[in-house]
Amino acid sequence: MEKRDEAGEYHSKDFEWEFLQNIVENDPSLSHHLHHHQDFSNYSPNSQPWQDFHSRHSSGKFFKERRYLLKEFPELVSCGENSKLLEIGCGNGSTVLPILRGSKNITVYACDCSSEALVRTKENIDRAIDLVDNFRSFCCDFSTSEFPNWVACDHCRDKFMVNHSGRSEGMQVNYKCLLNEHCIGGVEFVTLIFTLSAVSKERMPRAIKECFSVLKPGGLLLFRDYGLYDMTMLRFEPEKRVGFREYVRSDGTLSYFFCLDTARKLFTDAGFIEVELEYCCVKAVNRRKGKDMYRVWVHGKFQKPFYN
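Above: the chain's sequence. Below: its structure in token form.
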């Protein structure tokens, strides 16, 4: 499943994705997941469903620490001193906590569109770690809003933007920026862990460009999310479709399922260089029902170009 008890037990190649693709695309009962041409309902997403979700699940039942992330993204452990990470969509802290435990060199800036989620994150961190001084959280919906200037001020955003020829834009030194103690001048890492799938497809390009704007040149965006034909996708009924490969849950939250080509285009169109991109395919068994469960996630690493 999505988390194992120990990171060392994690594996991601139980089956080939094409094996599952063949099963799904030849099953008539699943044909409603395959077609582009369909009239979708007019669904306008906002942050309220996630606010309600975290209010309902404040007991911590849904908290599963993602310890495998340090194995999947070892850069978070081997990074240099004073590295900065922006975790987007921190939820209840299931991503933040193993990173804080695993690397003493990283300062984590965590955001979520739900203020309730930020409360849960702080509670879980306080329970697990004493005297955390390298963590800061803030409320932000990156699909509709810019990150605050203390993540990377307007000058830093301009300086760190790169055009498609790879050349830097706006390299003039701004001494006011250099003297601004609240400006951290961009981050070395951005993590998008099961976050982008909850953003409407039409807002994804804008959201990814916002991630690009606050990364330092050479910085990494670390991506993990739901993959095409994951078990969760196949459970959705036809009326839950609000777009191609896009669904709305009963609680009003969105879920999109990525193929590799879609993920690649979204990130490279924003200016990123693809470093790694693959399906993670994990087979689990429901012993009570005697059924195989096929989980599919997309794993990716994307780098912001260095200046030429």
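The first strand starts at residue 83 and ends at 88.
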